[in-house]
Write a structure and sequence with these properties.
Blueprint (H helix, E strand, L loop, with lengths): L1 H17 L30 E8 L2 E9 L5 E9 L7
Antiparallel strand pairs: 1-2, 2-3
Amino acid sequence: MKKIALMLLCVVALAACTATPPDLEPLPGSLTYGETASSRKTRAAPGTMIQNRFLHKGTMVFETYEVQPDHTYKLVRRSVADSWPPGD
């Protein structure tokens, strides 16, 4: 009985790992904030990763975009530094 419960718990945990995260919404300062997808295009090759950083409400935001096949940007990653500059 314990093996079945453990196996069921593992299946549930693994199923959660395969779920896709929700799309990130652009913040003021993001490359795609307030724009339609067709208004910002790049000549970079599809699959290219583009970095952006900016201050938002006193925190430093680091974003990564991936160039799509139609040469638009897709926000794929965001991290935030709570104190900026580092060491404060």
